[in-house]
Design a protein that fits this description.
binds zinc ion; 345 residues; eight-stranded parallel beta sheet; alpha/beta; Arginase, Chain A; 10 strands
Length: 345
């Protein structure tokens, strides 16, 4: 399956994703979904609309503990409150979270049935901080992990997840750190919430070498990400030979974002999307909205990144600037990963 400029785009979204809302101001707010949808509207590709149906217990229990799911449902039933210091819920949060996770499975099914080469879940709440047994960081269920596990249950032998949200995808890492079938690569600002994602976190057990963390210092920009992609991300994602690529697409590494101090722009997200397509031209790709808290940056970046996934020729050129800190991270990874990826880096 090779992409043409008219490649179609399978989309899941639903009004319930705006009904999950905080009682006062919170950066993870319903207006974010409108911004993402305005970005989607700027992408010139035929659409296939998929239902945002609720995830089943079987689908969720592949990555979450059944006791957590029971506890969460009971806690969310018709009330409003906080699950931790920054993770709120209201009377619509249960339905929104369950439909986001079910929509994640619909995206995977559409991709595996070749109904479209690119699929997008534009949903709230986001997911990548959610642990097997605990909500955190605005996340109630781990949508992208549910998607990856769904693909595995459908018989996909290898899945790659690239997480370019500015925060470490600690939940997704915790879920797959022992699973050699799922490559997890996170690029994130460090130090920053949630505090994990050190370069020496490489997975565990049979999954050793299949968790990759690339921390970036404050002020890093798209050229630094391009360098990391060229030196580490693209060679490993290619060597893993995934049959499905999933992107934890947060846009809070954008220079305008209030929650981080990285300096990416919309073109940098487009470049990363296009570079992944170029590395894996025949592999379907799922796009899962995570963070991104400046509405203008979010709209522009969703338009740019999704546009580049359906038509990689749209992305601007970007060259690494040979940042010595990025080179040091790449060198460390090259050394520590050699036993698991001989000759790949
Ligand atoms: Zn984030």
């Amino acid at each position: 399956m090779h992409l043409s400029p008219s490649a179609s785009l399978a989309v899941v979204s639903d009004p319930v994703f705006t009904a999950h809302s905080p009682s006062g101001f919170h950066p993870e707010r319903p207006e974010r979904l409108g911004a993402a949808l305005r970005g989607l509207a700027r992408v010139g590709a035929p659409r296939v609309y998929l239902p945002a149906r609720e995830a089943t217990l079987e689908e969720l229990a592949r990555v979450h503990h059944p006791a957590y799911l029971e506890r969460l449902q009971a806690r969310l039933a018709g009330r409003a409150g906080m699950l931790d210091g920054d993770t709120y819920f209201n009377a619509h949060s249960r339905e929104a979270a369950w439909r986001a996770a079910g929509g994640a499975c619909e995206v995977v099914d559409a991709l595996l049935q070749a109904r479209a080469p690119v699929g997008a879940l534009l949903a709230r709440p986001p997911g990548h901080h959610c642990l097997p047994d605990r909500a955190m960081g605005f996340c109630l269920l781990n949508n992208i992990a549910v998607a990856a596990a769904h693909a595995r249950a459908r018989g996909v032998p290898r899945v790659a997840i690239v997480d370019w949200d500015v925060h470490h995808g600690n939940g997704t890492q915790a879920i797959f750190e022992r699973d050699p079938a799922v490559l997890f690569v996170s690029l994130h600002e460090s130090p920053l919430y949630p505090g994990s994602g050190h370069v020496n976190e490489l997975g565990a057990g049979d999954g050793l070498g299949r968790t990759i963390n690339l921390p970036f210092q404050s002020g890093s920009d798209g050229r630094d990400y391009a360098q990391a992609f060229q030196e580490v991300v693209l060679p490993l994602v290619t060597a893993h030979r995934p049959e499905l690529l999933l992107v934890s697409a947060g846009f809070d590494a954008h220079a305008r974002d209030p929650l981080s101090s990285l300096k990416l722009d919309a073109g940098a997200f487009a470049w990363m999307a296009s570079a992944l397509r170029g590395a894996l031209p025949a592999v379907p790709v799922g796009f899962f909205l995570e963070g991104g808290y400046d509405l203008t940056a979010l709209e522009d970046s969703v338009a740019a990144a999704l546009g580049a996934l359906v038509d990689p020729t749209q992305a601007p050129a970007l060259q690494g600037r040979n940042n010595h800190l990025v080179s040091a991270v790449a060198r460390t990874l090259r050394r520590s990963l050699e036993p698991y990826w001989p000759g790949a880096l």
